[in-house]
Inverse folding.
């Protein structure tokens, strides 16, 4: 028996989501003078980039990619990033908050909250200011976290990159208000209406390359504070009662390796991941330490300019 | 709901995945008053469709103990109130989007607040929805809010309604009570153009008739809420409508390829089809429908594509493609319903930006026909429009664009209004119909041109616009400027605020709306005078930036100068040459600029006169120098 047809049906929910994302991207490219796409190397970024290749075909996306490198990403992520930019022939800007590096800020020594603020939020602001971008695409989805559920698709940021959740522009139909004064900017979220399941189904249907860390494999794992942390390089210092064990794990979300928990899984193919997703009952940000810090912590970070 | 085949890589699982990818999408909104249980209902839907993950649920149990209103039970409503402020106040202040999925459909829910002051948010949620779930409390029945919600969703063009009669447990599952509420609703909404209305008795808190039919309402023969949402047909059959596509972006990777990227709004198009650009009327044929996944044989409503044409014709962003036999009206005057969304009121005559599809133009409300009371649907007279008010208005645009009635064409019939200075989205509109006026009143072509008239006078017509507080010295300086120009043999005219208010504008007072109209008229008169070849000096307080911008937009760049006569309020008040400040301070004059009405100073005036630092004579010389060109010699190139 042959395989069932996995191509995306022209009128399915995935095709409608795809068309909506493409429309958003074209609108940004047409309305802004200096847009950029934030590329975080994860599965959502992979989908966003794939959609950008579609939106402007046969042209290349008319904007560069920007990766804010905290210097603590998984090594496989960095390799995948460089490979992807090369494969697609795209410009990628890599920005590191050098002040943070000089100050010796690490996730092990400064706590996840402060570390994220300095290396991610401040790093991002530095890069946006340095290049004067007036619009930045982000891969955030409304289903990820409660405060994101109210985020606009064109989300206004003040000249200080802050978000004012109580004073957002109304957003009707698919008419996006792109007007900003000098220094102000828009964060555009083309994946707003996608769910985690949609993302995986789309990756499966379209055959989009993703970082191998998403697939189950034996990896060197340390159990710390109830999370499975991968010892990705020698900077991971073990506490006295800890040891590294090879365990069959995969990652549902990717960030800085000391802050990203793995899940035990033997899903080694896309179809198996989707299957696991469909029976999963734990939401994906659980794997990220930063949301555990306090209630409403994502909203606080967003107000400060975190994506 | 979601039963996933457990055996991996089985044919059953592959089929399951394939089916998941072919699901359709339903977008709906929920509206209800504060205590109708709207958030609880959505929380219940998420719970019943197993969309609540374990870690969310444990966070919910924590939150319920802290903020919950359901005693020992888990408060499902807390799932939805995303922003901290809302959690504290226990109300929903913004539109939140929620997602759930069943085997049949994916759902996007716009959860919108029900307070009177949040008409804005409801309109926002409705604009992207195909169906509305209106909640009523079975104990209270149809209330004022229900009428408002029904009106707003009908205004936004929603055709499918679910009347969710919630808290049916609190009226002992009374069939008669339910029937009475349903009949009330059917009666008052008869004229709202709804295609389907389904009333369902339910309890969001206990789950009756949410996912499954409840044994506690044996008298109810209809579907559960979820069964209905999974099966309701909301397709508008857009594919059979006339073809429309707004050009979003011109795709030009190299000299050999020129494509027009956009999303098909309605209808369908195939290679070889005739196509016409609505605005210009220029025709061509579709050559290819290009996508990343290969060329298409047909593009239908909802498809994001790139069209290439057989001919090199002039097309740019904002143009609308149609079939040549069915071209949209191209107009600059039309009637529309407007929902106002900003604290600063809408003022007729003020210049806003209007964005329709991918096109942005200058627009003003020429007339508020009437305001509509969203609770009683009564028509009321109005001079301005405040936050959350709805009105039927007439609009005029700076140029004619493709505009069609909203009920027939959502995309060419919907628009937002943007404040020119704050860039805020201040209003949303739905076109009712075009006004024939503009189409019939063509510009009279005149043989003696503006340039010819100016040449006869040996001068270049200019408009110097003096703005500043009452008593700042505007008229004094403008007078000196005019005398100097007169001596040089220039033909001038000085339009002075006080004088014009005695004649042309004697019907206007000092409210914000009247001030806007005052300046609009003076701007138009000044423009006609420059057409006649005159050098025009306007001396008006003109306190609002938007109206000065409007006057500026009437003129060619370089022919208009904003002259800011900058005198501190204390100084004006100390001078008080007409005794007006004293009266204003005593409350004898209302809406006095600088006292109880704002003055918005120019940000970058061409000429900035600080009267405390510069003499009248020196200031006047600077204005004269600008009017005559920098070196004092006339520039003969017009």
């Amino acid at each position: 028996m042959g395989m069932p047809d996995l191509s995306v049906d022209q009128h399915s929910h995935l095709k409608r989501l795809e068309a909506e994302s493409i429309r958003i991207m074209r609108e940004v490219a047409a309305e802004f003078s200096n847009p950029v796409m934030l590329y975080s190397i994860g599965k959502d970024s992979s989908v966003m980039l794939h959609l950008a290749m579609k939106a402007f075909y046969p042209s290349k996306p008319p904007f560069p990619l920007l990766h804010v490198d905290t210097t603590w990403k998984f090594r496989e992520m960095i390799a995948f990033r460089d490979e992807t930019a090369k494969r697609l022939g795209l410009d990628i800007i890599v920005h590191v908050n050098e002040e943070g590096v000089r100050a010796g800020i690490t996730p092990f020594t400064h706590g996840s909250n402060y570390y994220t603020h300095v290396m991610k939020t401040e790093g991002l602001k530095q890069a946006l200011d340095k290049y004067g971008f007036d619009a930045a695409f982000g891969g955030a989805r409304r289903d990820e976290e409660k405060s994101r559920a109210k985020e606009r698709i064109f989300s206004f940021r003040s000249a200080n990159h802050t978000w004012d959740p109580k004073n957002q522009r109304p957003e009707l139909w698919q008419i996006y208000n792109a007007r900003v004064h000098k220094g102000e900017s828009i964060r555009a979220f083309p994946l707003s209406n996608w769910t985690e399941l949609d993302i995986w189904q789309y990756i499966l249907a379209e055959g989009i390359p993703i970082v191998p860390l998403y697939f189950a494999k034996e990896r060197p794992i340390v159990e710390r504070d109830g999370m499975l942390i991968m010892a990705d390089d020698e900077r991971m210092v073990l506490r006295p009662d800890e040891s590294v064990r090879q365990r069959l794990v995969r990652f549902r979300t990717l960030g800085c390796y000391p802050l990203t928990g793995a899940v035990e899984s033997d899903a080694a193919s896309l179809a198996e991941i989707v299957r696991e997703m469909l029976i999963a009952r734990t939401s994906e940000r659980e794997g990220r330490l930063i949301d555990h810090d306090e209630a409403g912590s994502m909203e606080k970070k967003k107000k400060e300019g975190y994506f | 709901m979601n039963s996933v085949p457990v055996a991996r890589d089985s044919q059953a699982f592959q089929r399951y995945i394939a089916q998941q990818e072919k699901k359709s999408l339903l977008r709906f909104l929920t509206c209800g008053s504060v205590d109708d249980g709207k958030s609880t209902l959505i929380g219940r839907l998420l719970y019943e469709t197993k969309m609540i993950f374990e870690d969310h649920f444990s966070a919910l149990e924590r939150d319920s103990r802290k903020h919950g209103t359901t005693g020992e039970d888990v408060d499902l409503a807390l799932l939805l109130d995303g922003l901290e402020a809302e959690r504290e106040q226990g109300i929903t202040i913004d539109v939140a989007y929620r997602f759930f999925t069943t085997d049949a459909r994916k759902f996007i829910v716009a959860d919108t607040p029900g307070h009177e002051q949040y008409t804005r948010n409801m309109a926002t949620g409705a604009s992207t929805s195909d169906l509305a779930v209106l909640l009523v409390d079975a104990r209270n029945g149809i209330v004022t809010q229900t009428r408002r919600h029904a009106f707003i969703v009908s205004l936004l063009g929603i055709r499918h309604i679910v009347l969710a009669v919630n808290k049916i447990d609190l009226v002992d599952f009374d069939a008669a009570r339910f029937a009475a509420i349903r009949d009330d609703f059917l009666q008052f909404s008869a004229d709202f153009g709804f295609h389907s209305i389904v009333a369902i008795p339910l309890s969001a808190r206990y789950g009756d008739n949410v996912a499954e039919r409840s044994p506690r309402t044996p008298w109810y023969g209809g579907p559960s809420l979820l069964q209905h949402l999974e099966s309701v047909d909301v397709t508008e059959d857009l594919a059979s409508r006339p073809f429309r596509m707004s050009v979003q972006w011109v795709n030009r990777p190299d000299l050999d390829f020129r494509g027009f990227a956009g999303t098909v709004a309605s209808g369908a198009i195939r290679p070889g089809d005739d196509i016409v650009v609505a605005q210009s009327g220029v025709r061509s044929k579709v050559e290819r429908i290009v996508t990343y996944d290969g060329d298409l044989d047909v593009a239908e409503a909802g498809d994001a594509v790139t069209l290439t044409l057989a001919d090199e014709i002039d097309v740019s962003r904002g143009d609308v493609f149609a079939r040549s036999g069915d071209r949209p009206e191209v107009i600059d005057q039309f009637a529309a319903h407007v929902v106002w969304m900003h604290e600063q009121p809408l003022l007729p005559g003020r210049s806003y930006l209007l964005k329709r599809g991918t096109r942005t133009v200058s627009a003003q409300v020429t007339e508020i026909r009437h305001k509509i009371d969203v609770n009683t649907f009564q028509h009321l007279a109005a001079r301005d429009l405040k936050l959350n008010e709805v009105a039927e208005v007439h609009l005029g645009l700076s140029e004619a664009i493709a505009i069609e009635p909203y009920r027939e064409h959502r995309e060419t019939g919907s628009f937002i209004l943007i404040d020119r200075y704050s860039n805020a989205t201040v209003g949303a509109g739905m076109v009712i119909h075009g006004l024939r006026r503009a189409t019939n009143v063509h510009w009279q072509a005149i043989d003696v041109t503006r340039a010819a008239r100016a040449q006869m006078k040996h001068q270049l017509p200019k408009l110097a616009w003096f703005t500043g507080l009452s008593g700042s010295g505007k008229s004094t300086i403008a007078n000196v400027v005019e005398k100097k120009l007169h001596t040089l043999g220039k033909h001038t005219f000085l339009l002075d605020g006080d004088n014009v208010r005695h004649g042309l504008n004697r019907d206007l007072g000092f409210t914000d709306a009247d001030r806007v109209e005052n300046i609009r008229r003076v701007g138009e008169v000044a423009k006609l005078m420059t057409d006649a070849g005159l050098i025009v000096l306007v001396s008006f307080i003109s306190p609002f930036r938007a109206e000065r911008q409007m006057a500026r937009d009437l003129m060619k760049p370089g022919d208009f100068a904003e002259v800011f006569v900058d005198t501190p309020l204390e100084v004006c008040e100390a001078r008080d040459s007409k005794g007006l400040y004293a009266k204003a301070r005593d409350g004898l004059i209302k809406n006095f600029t600088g006292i109880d009405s704002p003055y918005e100073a120019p940000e970058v005036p061409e000429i900035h006169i600080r009267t405390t630092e510069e003499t009248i004579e020196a200031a006047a010389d600077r204005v004269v120098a600008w009017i005559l060109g920098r070196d004092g010699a006339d520039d003969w190139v017009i």
Notes: Chain A has two domains: 13-199+296-304, 211-289.
